[in-house]
Amino acid sequence: MPSLRVLVVDDNDLIRQLVRLIVESGGHVAVEAESAEIALEVAREDPPDVWVVDEVMPGMMGSELIRALRGSPDARLRSAPVIGISGREGADRELLAAGANAFVPKPVEEQALLSALVRAAPAARGRGGTPPGLPA
What we know:
Elements: E1 5-9, H1 13-25, E2 29-33, H2 36-45, E3 50-54, H3 62-70, H4 75-78, E4 82-86, H5 91-98, E5 102-105, H6 110-124
Parallel strand pairs: 1-2, 1-3, 3-4, 4-5
Helix pairs in contact: 3-5
């Protein structure tokens, strides 16, 4: 599988580092953003192939970020594969309802995240992809 550029959005520095290491262990490139607002700025300049988005963040929540992506006038953002992550009960439903393609619970397990990335890859490459709401 070709390398993906993955934008990791989480306000917790340790979680971002862990997810970055997992993404890189799978042969992909990770870009980090500590908030949804920063992630949107980064994506406007150079949209990632896949997003990994935490639900609980100060300011814009992950589900709000996903809704903003899905409603974007930019087709690259609107159709971007998104993997939601969270340790909060019920967050999976909120992220998937907002339009996430997959959900991986925290604590994030390496194989679960890498599997979700593999499943997101076809959508990232414009060849179909994981139907919305399909769990990782």
